[in-house]
Design goal:
The chain is of the alpha+beta class. The chain contains 4 helices and 8 strands, in the order αβββααβββββα. It has a single domain, classed as Nuclear Transport Factor 2, Chain: A (Roll), CATH 3.10.450.50. About 20% of the residues lie in helices and about 30% in strands.
């Protein structure tokens, strides 16, 4: 496995997508999700065990089953009222990049379906699996969900070594609102829904298994005011 360049999470504990940090849900009281019901950083995986319907590119990718791509941008429905807009890099779509996108979308899908869709478990392993499970569980236990549009862009494969790879992506969750399970926004929105904290750099270390599928092993992120996060600002 390659060494991930972003060694430690450097953002605040209330980020939206970075797995493994405590959530800050405004009025909500979620357990200890890393970006979860409280809004600490967006999706991340759940448990080292692989769940049904892997979320990686080679096991039926979410990206290929979403809406059509227009001008390189694809809008994928994660759940009713909850979408992920992906700006794909030009050229051949790399399966490792596809796997990171699938993992992100499927974790939001788990949140939007109240845990009924747990296919995100198939695209993560080891630490990423545990972090993703904790993140999703934070929303569920806090009876929280989300509505709106999250954006993923500047996707890039930064390195590949044998069966290991690193993928970086910019994420903008300023188009999301933290809601209760009925879809009503909570009165006090967490900081991860508002600029500049809503925009961050996501880094993932992935492993290619014997089945040829890429799965995320480790999530890290750079959040504002880190310079790498500022590079994602538009």
């Amino acid at each position: 496995m390659i060494a991930i360049s972003l060694v430690a999470a450097c953002g605040p504990a209330d980020r939206g997508y970075h797995p493994g940090q405590s959530a800050d849900v405004g009025q909500a009281s979620a357990g200890a999700p890393p970006n979860g019901s409280d809004g600490s950083n967006g999706p991340s995986g759940s448990g080292a065990s692989n769940g049904p319907n892997g979320s990686n590119g080679s096991n039926g990718s979410i990206g290929s089953s979403g809406n059509g791509v227009r001008n390189g941008v694809q809008s994928i429905v994660a759940a009713p009222g909850l979408q992920v807009e992906v700006e794909w890099p030009s050229g051949t779509r790399d399966p490792a990049i596809q796997s990171l996108v699938d993992s992100y979308v499927s974790q939001w899908r788990a949140v939007g379906t109240r845990g009924r869709d747990d296919s995100y478990l198939g695209g993560v392993e080891d630490e990423a699996g545990r972090d993703a499970y904790t993140w999703v569980s934070g929303f569920l236990s806090g009876r929280r969900s989300a509505q709106g549009v999250a954006k993923v862009y500047a996707l890039r494969l930064t390195s590949v070594t044998g069966s290991g790879a690193e993928v970086d992506a910019c994420v903008d969750e300023s188009g999301l609102k933290l809601t209760d399970t009925s879809g009503t926004p909570v009165p006090e929105q967490p900081s991860w829904t508002k600029p500049p904290h809503a925009v961050y750099l996501q880094v993932a270390a992935l492993h290619k298994g014997d089945d040829g599928a890429w799965r995320v092993k480790l999530f890290r992120h750079a959040a504002y005011p880190d310079e790498r996060a500022k590079e994602c600002a538009r």
